[in-house]
Amino acid sequence: MRIFLDTANLEEIRQAAAWGVVSGVTTNPSLMAKEKGADFQETIREICSLIDGPISAEVTALDTEGMIAQARDQAKWHRNVVIKVPITPAGLGATKVLSAEGISTNLTLCFSTNQALLAAAAGATYVSPFLGRLDDIGHDGIAVVAEIVSVYKNYGLRTQVIAASIRHPLHVVAAAKAGAHIATIPYKVLTQMVEHPLTKNGLDRFMADWASRK
Ligand code: G3P
User: Fold this and answer.
1) Atom of ligand 1 nearest to the CA of 56
2) Nearest 5°: CA angle at 42, between 39 and 48?
3) Which residue's CA lies nearest to atom 4 of ligand 1?
4) What's the whole-number average pLDDT of the chain?
5) Ligand 1: which of 128, 145, 165 to mutate, most ligand atoms within 8 Å of CB?
6) 214 — pLDDT class (breaks 50, 70, 90)
């Protein structure tokens, strides 16, 4: 399973890039809004310079033509830009056109296997089931991810599944066990993934022993 970072914060992306484990980034309008005053295009271009992999930038138009116009513009910002499109009738229509033009898409706000089937039928490159938000309302988010992976396999569908709305390290493990191609992870969760008390204690002891040698 590939690891993407789910943030528009350049400092977080710089830090994570140095680990060498992140192969893409996803942003959305809410994540952009957290970066007060940041220009959207400049931010996406900067992210593209930090991580050489798929970088999702979301459209904000709600109609097909508006989405297509925004997507064509955003796709010119950098060769790695992936257009994030909401799964709505308008979004599916835009995805069909963009896919025919060779523009990569990430169908977002996916909460069901039916939506994921439609995303694949429209030619989506990626689909992003939001497992944390499903858990929030008492549904089993990871079961939806697993079901999407399973039905895609049944038909050899090439759309890749990005487990999104990840809230804690166990979500990452569950996404990997479910067969998600990618998990897009907040920076905080990425740092939690590397931590283990036995690693810290073990390293402290190695260092103390090393310092005490004759
Ligand atoms: O990429 C969008 C998705 O990961 C949102 O996560 O935490 O706002 O539900 P969250």
Assistant:
1) 1
2) 135
3) 165
4) 98
5) 165
6) confident
Q: Which of 142, 187, 190 is closest to 169 using CA atoms?
A: 190
Please return the burial class of 69, using the count of CB atoms within 10 Å of its CB with bins 0-12, 13-18 and 19+: middle
Distance 128 CA to ligand 1 centre (A): 10
Q: What is the pLDDT of residues 182-203, one digit of tens each?
A: 999 999 999 999 999 999 999 9
Give me the mean pLDDT over the 90-99 stretch: 98
pLDDT beyond 90 at 176: yes
Ligand 1 pocket mutation, candidates 58, 133, 171, 189, criterion most atoms within 8 A of CB: 133
Catalytic center residues: 84
Positive or negative, the Cα torsion across 52, 59, 88, 30? positive
Cβ neighbours of residue 204 under 8 Å, at least 6 residues apart? none
Give the integer Cα–Cα distance in Å for 39 and 42: 5
Give me the amino acid identity at 58: E
